[in-house]
Amino acid sequence: MAIATINPTTGETLKIFESLEDGEIAAKLELAQQTFEQYRQTSFQLRSQWLQQAANILEQEKADFAKLMTLEMGKTLKSAIAEVEKCALVCRYYAENAPNFLADVTVKTDASHSFVKYQPLGIILAVMPWNFPFWQVFRFAAPALMAGNVGLLKHASNVPQCALAIEDIINRAGFPAGAFQTLLIGAAKVADLMADERVKAATLTGSEPAGASLAAASGKQIKKTVLELGGSDPFIVLESADLEAAVSTAVTARMLNNGQSCIAAKRFIVAETIADQFEKLLLQKIQALKVGDPLAADTDLGPLATPGILQDLDKQVQIAVESGAKVLTGGYALEDRPGNFYPPTIIIDIPLDHPIAKEEFFGPVALLFRVRDIDAAIKLANDSPFGLGASAWTNNEEEKNRLIQEIEAGAVFINSMVKSDPRLPFGGIKRSGYGRELSIQGIHEFVNIKTVWVK
Length: 455
Fold this sequence. Notes:
Helix content is 41%, strand content 21%. By secondary structure, it is α/β, with parallel strands linked by helices. It folds into 2 domains: 3-229 and 432-454, Aldehyde Dehydrogenase, Chain A, domain 1 (3-Layer(aba) Sandwich); 233-421, Aldehyde Dehydrogenase, Chain A, domain 2 (3-Layer(aba) Sandwich). Strand 5 (123-127), helix 5 (135-146) and strand 6 form a beta-alpha-beta unit. This is NAD-dependent succinate-semialdehyde dehydrogenase. Belongs to the aldehyde dehydrogenase family.
């Protein structure tokens, strides 16, 4: 795949970038290693000052960064601005909390003094996706840099300007040259990077095949990885739920980021007794969404990021229909305009024994299922290779407790949509990956947790 900015709204190629040569990659690796030897000795106070300045830059220039995201991957401008603001938030969170998260922890033993010490590992490789081109990077970079590590970013090939802008932000914030570098390279170069002894660990957010490939390359070198992969998150609505709130949230949870989010609600599992009403309200709200130019203030849904994503999504919908499912609205690519536009779509009557019922639809397509009770809802929710997040709606305390206890996922949100928050760990189980980002758990993923015993 070419490294290029191709406007998904118009299909126009705006800028093409040359991939780094091997010698250029080697020079960046050497700079990263040299920087680490000095950077690891810097104080938390200094790192915190730099990270706070990065937050200042993000906030001051959020309109420009947001427009860049919209031009490269098609998210609405208002959601892009919110993404930049969230990046500033995670920078401030770790700038303020990392010193406590990484402070020595005394443990009482029969030693004179025993404690746990947290130390940086070195160069961490981040392989990041296009759907949240700033947020995915900063939720890695903020804790990694505060821990004293240095970062190499291999970003998705369709958001190169975002990748370069992030490096520029970190440099302008005051971090040493080499503390965070963008590598404009193809995926084929990742295994070579992992084979380099200076690269100590890696994190990836992306598809299952990409995660499996990185895990295999890292496993050969016995190096730590954190993977955040796909999801087919259930959105369960039971009889006692506030139906209006559930439906309104369902639309946001499915259509977030033009439907291109790992933690978007994808499978709507609704109690039979309220399913007709839920379906009617959902249809009304989804049909009212405006599809159009993501730079326009009144647009609800922009284009998909690439033609390939559009084609894959459309193929999935057609397979669902061929299997016996029914399309209530949407269900076809919009060919009356340039760009990668797909309308908000609802599919019902999907055969549960068909593979399509378990797949991730990475676009504005909602799969609607009816179940008789909470037992059937939990069973269907767990009948998935994924386990990233789950949203469940009920006002029955016993049902809340069962949903929290029995749903197989890295996160369960009751009467709210699934979202990431710097204060809470984020990640999945099963084929959704392993490890955690954010919170104290996120910063502990890429440090040496050293036991110290002094007699």
